[in-house]
Amino acid sequence: MATAASGGRSLPLDMAPFAPSIPLMPPEEPLMSEFEKPPLDVLLSAPRGFCAGVDRAIQIVELALKKFGAPVYVRHEIVHNRYVVDSLRDKGAVFVEELDEIPDDGQPVVFSAHGVPKSVPEAARTRQMFFLDATCPLVSKVHKEAQIHFKRDREIVLIGHAGHPEVIGTMGQLPPGTVSLIETVADAAVFQPRDPTALAYLTQTTLSVDDTAAIVRVLMERFPAITAPHKEDICYATTNRQDAVKRIAASVDAMIVVGAPNSSNSQRLREVAEREGCPVSVLIQRASDIDWPALGAIRRVGVTAGASAPEVLVEEVIDAFAARYAVKVEVVQTAEETIAFNLPRELRPAAA
Ligand code: SF4
């Protein structure tokens, strides 16, 4: 536990906010004196928020802006967080969905942390575009596994969510029709491989650890020869954030997950809290999204953040609680994270 008293609330010592370029709106504060505020324990889940892959992706855009000037094009949201995207846009990033939206002006284009199908860098090379790949190295690891299985003539099953950019990117490493997507236990129960003795599975990096284990169990029971990843594809950040939520979810009246609705790992955190027995588990983007009446009469609340949510938004949420309650913040830490990924070679001098 690491806390420090500050004004009407206790602040965790490990808060390192993402430098905002958009001023934060103060929470709408009810007129209530410190003496009138009901007490509230805030259990702050740790690890939470930015992972090494998200941190690297944001740094790539910021360093590209520093080195090459604006505009820097970014294909797809660099990470799934509107606040981060808006902040980078203010600094000169231009977000596009496809390369054909980018003029031939010689400015760099950055591929998002989720990874891209092979066709995207190929198209960029054809147009002689200068691109920087912010694909998380742990997603690139899954791409490499897919290519190895393909070379070894194994049929590949990808466990993941249809339409998620990471899934599109991983499936796009190989020719169409090569990878079969499985989303649920029911899908796994009816999947018919061409040859059950030449089969391998991979997973999206941001899935529910428990749901994925259930799907893998069904696949292993049905196809005992299936090849598993050497090392878990669900990444350390996803696993650690879910474990931390499990530690506190059953002991709080409500769980607040700060993250975007299109962020897979944030959605999973909300589900994990619900499954662990937390009566109210909500995903919010900003403090202003909190539905106060829906929280009911709370005495203990858990707060966490998805891997793409900056710490400044967690602070905003705690401030909003502090405006209504006499809060005491306790950090509940279940793992230490020390992972950092190298930047692309072209940007290392700019980072020095
Ligand atoms: S959530 Fe995991 S896979 Fe995704 S960017 Fe972060 S570390 Fe990489």
List keywords for this structure.
single chain, alpha/beta, Cobalt-precorrin-4 Transmethylase, domain 1, Rossmann fold, 3 domains, five-stranded parallel beta sheet, 14 strands, 36% helix, 19% strand, flat, disordered N terminus
What can you tell me about this protein's structure?
The protein has 352 residues and is α/β, with parallel strands linked by helices. The protein has three domains: 35-50 and 236-333, Cobalt-precorrin-4 Transmethylase, domain 1 (3-Layer(aba) Sandwich); 52-136, Rossmann fold, CATH 3.40.50.11270; 138-222, 3-Layer(aba) Sandwich (Cobalt-precorrin-4 Transmethylase, domain 1). 36% of the residues lie in helices and 19% in strands. The protein has twelve helices and 14 strands. The chain has helices at residues 52-68, 82-91, 119-126, 137-151, 165-171, 185-190, 209-222, 236-249, 264-275, 292-295, 311-324, 348-351; strands spanning 3-6, 9-12, 39-46, 72-75, 93-96, 109-111, 131-133, 155-159, 179-182, 199-203, 254-258, 280-284, 300-305, 326-333. It has a five-stranded parallel β-sheet with strand order 12-11-13-3-14, sandwiched between helices. A four-stranded parallel β-sheet has the order 5-4-6-7. Helix 4 packs parallel to helix 5 and helix 8 (236-249) runs parallel beside helix 9. It is flat and about 70 Å long. The relative contact order is 0.21. Residues 51-54, 113, 136, 138-139, 205-206, 235, 237-238, 265, 307 line the site of iron/sulfur cluster. It is an enzyme of class 1 (oxidoreductase). Its cofactor is [4Fe-4S] cluster. Belongs to the IspH family. Isopentenyl diphosphate binds at residues 80, 114, 164, 263-265, 308. Its EC number is 1.17.7.4.
